[in-house]
Amino acid sequence: MYILSTKAKFDSAHFLKDYDGKCANIHGHRWTVTVDVGSEELQQDGPFRGMVVDFSKLKDDLREETDRLDHTLIYEEGSLLPETLEAFEKQGFRSVAFKGRPTAENLAKHFFDFMKQKGYRVLKAGIFETPENMASYTE
């Protein structure tokens, strides 16, 4: 199997509702996302002959989602009061509702699913919350 890997970075904040610790408070991270995609075959014709996919397309597809999340507050649906969300909107702050807690584990699965929907055979997606701490998801 041929395996391609790429990564992208973004900055965002999150918090963990009902968590007993510091992460219950809004805090930010410089997230690093890694994605591994695979194929048994290489393209046989055209400008991408001998490739699984052009790296620039792979990077652009991943960056589509990291750019959407960059400099936002990622929050669990239902974890903020409607008045809070309204105030954020009035202030011009960007926020993204997330199904489930926005943990590193759930974000890894989110990126796995996102790239899978883009048509890739995703082998693994990972996300570094800090330079030392990473969560991964694979099927």
Describe the structure in your own words.
The protein is 28% helix and 33% strand. The chain has three helices and six strands, in the order ββαβαβαββ. The protein has helices spanning 55-69, 82-91, 104-117, and strands at 2-14, 27-39, 72-76, 95-98, 122-128, 134-137. A six-stranded mixed beta sheet has the order 4-3-1-2-5-6, sandwiched between helices. The longest helix is centred in the middle third of the chain and has 15 residues, at 55-69. The chain is elongated.
Task: Write a brief structural summary.
The protein is α/β, with parallel strands linked by helices and about 140 residues long.
Keywords:
single chain; 139 residues; alpha/beta; six-stranded mixed beta sheet; 3 helices
What characteristic shape results from the CA principal axes?
Answer: elongated
Strand content: 25-35%
**Number of helical regions:** 3
**Unreliable stretches:** none
Cα(first) to Cα(last) distance is 16 Å
Largest sheet, in brief, is: 6 strands, mixed
Derived structural class:
alpha/beta
Radius of gyration: 17 Å
Q: What is the arithmetic mean of pLDDT?
A: 97
Write the layout of secondary structure elements.
Blueprint: E1 2-14, E2 27-39, H1 55-69, E3 72-76, H2 82-91, E4 95-98, H3 104-117, E5 122-128, E6 134-137
Parallel strand pairs: 1-3, 3-4
Antiparallel strand pairs: 1-2, 2-5, 5-6
